[in-house]
Amino acid sequence: MAGGKLTPRQKMINLMYLIFIAMLALNMSKEVLSAFGILNVKIVESNVITDQRNESSFAQLAQKAVDQPGQFGDKKAKVEKIRVLSKEFNDYLENIKTSVTKDFERDAKGNLPYEEMDKGDLIDRMFFTGDKVSKAGEEFLNKINNYSAQIKQIGGSSIAESEMKKIEARFATKPVYSEKAGANLDWIDYHYKGFPLIATITNLSQLQADIKATESDIMSGMFQSDLVAAASLTAYQPIVVLDKSVFFQGEAVSGKIILGKFDPSLKAKSVIINGSNIQAMAGQAKFSFGAGNIGDHPITGSFNFDEGGKVVSLPINDKYVVVARPKSATISADKMNVVYRGVVNPMTISFAGINADKISASAPGLSSAGGGKFKMSPTSGNEVVINVTGTLPDGSKVSDKKTFRIKGIPGPTGTIRGETGVVKGPKSNLEIATIGAKLEDFDFEVGLNVVGFNLKVTGQPTVVVQGDKLNAQCKSVLSKAGRGDQVTISDIKTKLVGAGSYLLPRTAPVIFEIQ
Predict the structure, then answer these.
(1) For the whole model, what pTM was predicted?
(2) Residue 11: which pLDDT band, with cuts at 50, 70 and 90?
(3) Angle at which helices 69-101 and 135-155 pack, to 10 degrees?
(4) Which of 148, 359, 412, 433 lies in disulfide reach of 171, CB 3.0 to 4.6 Å?
């Protein structure tokens, strides 16, 4: 069966296939033989759809390789080789299917006479000589084994290790334990020996589905991030990055233009800044020109690329400020616009043009870390005022202040095995799992301890737990739950590590779905 993420339609086909295999131990009724035939038709139809989708994905990749050969050329070449390899393997399997069905007369719709295909002698004679595997059977096994090995050789590091393991497992031909035989059987014996012909045809069609799914997975895994980011170059945003935010009168304004999604293999056709062409480099273009008079000045122009045979121009619009001398302080929280109670907030405090050792700052909970860096640990209240004094080269002083809001840490989200939302797995996983909590989209690293929670199984009483693991009462309630039931972990009580008895706001629940 194909690995990876499957559509509901494919899951249904795979489930039907497993059920039919189990029924092979019974006498094959005409209805079962017909069911195999219908399943084979469904798989073949699904393969056609997958072929069309793969063709469309490759066409997009080929165009990207033309527009940006440095970024997509090598990957496109690897995919081309894999597609050739996949077609050869698919055609080989199709030739086997054609060979063993050529003497069966098809109906007006092109369907085989499924009810007449209850014998397995054609495949048995092809793949086996007595109790041994024939030369044709050995060739069949080698085709399967070599397919994943050649993909690994072609793809190399372009295919993620986890994806390669799925492909190898998908085409593994290791011995399989047979309950009926009470021993391990060779893979080809277990899957092909003595099976009705229509069942084998369906099995070969499923192998073809695995080939097409593998081809799709490789393109998706190898190019997903690239294709999403580069689906259209209009998704890139030119950004002006100045060497510093404010320049003194008479200085040269220096900096660079970069793309919001920097890619060292992406090079513009041309770059224009304030009406002048500048040299385009990999993913950026550096510039330098006179600052001009005191005040605001625009920086305009465009990044120009070739895409799909057309020139795509990305506009550049920014500005810079020229000042005579520093008169106000620059105070900014390094990670956010507010400061949070319960954590140490790193801050940078500076005056433009004044060295860090000539700047002092004061506020409740504020301490210096040296080099213009400070640590803020808010205490009580909803606001904190930071007062800053800077000493100019002539000994005179300038002062400024700024008010920051103080906020509490947001409510965390409950976790099971470190996962949030709906977590799936067998009951045994939940029984030994640790109930945790984490702050999502929070910029600080904080330690969280779960000290209690409620466990609820539908139709069962709620269990109140002290600590972060399921107790005996939980396991007793859980034993009555079945596959598909959901277990809700709610009212999770969470504390900050090292914050004494301080409880965080309400922790969002997490659900475990039993499989």
Answers:
(1) 0.45
(2) low
(3) 170
(4) 148
Contact 283, 262 (CB under 8 A): yes
**Do residues 351 and 330 lie in contact, with contact meaning Cβ atoms separated by under 8 Å?**
yes
Give domain limits for the chain: 8-229, 233-323, 329-407, 413-514
Whether 233-323 shares its CATH topology with 329-407 is answered yes
DSSP state of 7: -
Domain 233-323 in CATH 2.60.40.1930? The answer is yes
User: Side chain identity at 350, as an amino acid letter?
Assistant: S
Contact 219, 156 (CB under 8 A): no
The mean pLDDT value of the chain amounts to: 81
Angle between helices 69-101 and 197-229 (to 10 degrees): 170
What is the Cα–Cα distance from 435 to 431, expressed in whole angstroms? 10
Right CATH number for 329-407 from 3.40.190.10, 2.160.10.10, 2.60.40.10, 3.40.50.11260?
2.60.40.10
Classify 458 as helix, strand or coil.
Answer: coil
Q: How confident is the model at residue 3, as a pLDDT?
A: 45
Does the pLDDT at position 174 exceed 50? yes
